[in-house]
Amino acid sequence: MRPPRKADRSRQRDSDDEIVSLIPALRAFARTFCHEVSDADDLVQETLTKGLAAIDQFSPGTSLKSWLFTIMRNTFYTRIKSYMREAPGRIDCISGKPVMMASQEWSIRALELKHAIQRLPQQQREVLVLIGVLGTSYEDTAGICGCAVGTVKSRLSRARLRLLDELGEKSLQTLFETSVVSTAPATHSASRR
Fold first, then answer.
1. To the nearest whole number, what is the mean pLDDT of the chain?
2. Higher pLDDT residue, 46 or 97?
3. What would the 3-class secondary structure string for 107-144 be?
4. Is the Cβ–Cβ distance between 110 and 103 less than 8 Å?
5. 43: exposed, middle or buried (C-beta count within 10 Å: 0-12, 13-18, 19+)?
6. Does the predicted model carry a pTM greater than 0.85?
7. In angstroms, rounded to a whole number, what is the distance separating the alpha carbons of residues 180 and 110?
8. CA-CA distance, 2 to 96, in Å (whole number)?
């Protein structure tokens, strides 16, 4: 392997200087993707790391700025894809909720939910408890209930809609935001009756 020539070192130094001069533009572009400054800075750093590692793939005579912006855009979308794959429940993450909510609200909400579950038709209550409380798969629930998987899904959907209607809620998330912690024991006892 031959040592780098003066022209190669000079060209490398020029591209390094140009990359450094583009950092403010990269930071501004990163802010269009990330609202938090620290996330934008992380995106710039990752872009620069990838750009420097692949500098030999850059075609001289083309726009280095456009090339780095493309790397940044692709890096951002790759992050989003991986985030969506790895953390689908982040919005509902319990760690973001207060550690201790008022226990009287839990008790009231759990009692309301328990009574609403008890008022469900037997088949709907059975499917709701098996899947929603015990975490049984649709296939296993179908085997236990002696029906098709589609029937299980239909019963579960009707049970959820009926619970929401009886409790005056608009969505399952609003229902469980206040009662998820305390409903499990109450629901188990409801399923045994």
1. 77
2. 46
3. HHHHHHHHHHHHCCCHHHHHHHHHHHHCCCCHHHHHHH
4. no
5. buried
6. no
7. 8
8. 57
Of 74-88, 105-119, 174-188, which gets the smallest average pLDDT?
174-188
Geometric angle at alpha carbon 128, from 101 and 134, rounded to 5°:
70
- pLDDT for 86-127, tens place per residue? 655 555 555 555 555 556 777 888 888 888 888 888 889 888
Q: Are 117 and 131 in contact (CB under 8 A)?
A: no
The one-letter amino acid code at 30 reads: A
- Using only C-alpha atoms, what is the Rg of the chain? 28
Taking CA atoms, 2 is separated from 5, 8, 13, 93, in Å, by 9, 12, 19, 56
Neighbours of 99 (CB within 10 A): 6
Question: How far, in Å, CA of 144 to CA of 22, rounded?
Answer: 63
Of 164, 158, 127, the C-alpha closest to 142 is 127
Residue 128 · residue 159 · CB < 8 Å: yes
Q: At what angle do helices 103-118 and 172-192 cross, to 10 degrees?
A: 70
Least confident of 49-53, 106-110, 185-189: 185-189
Residues 24, 122: Cα–Cα separation, whole Å: 64
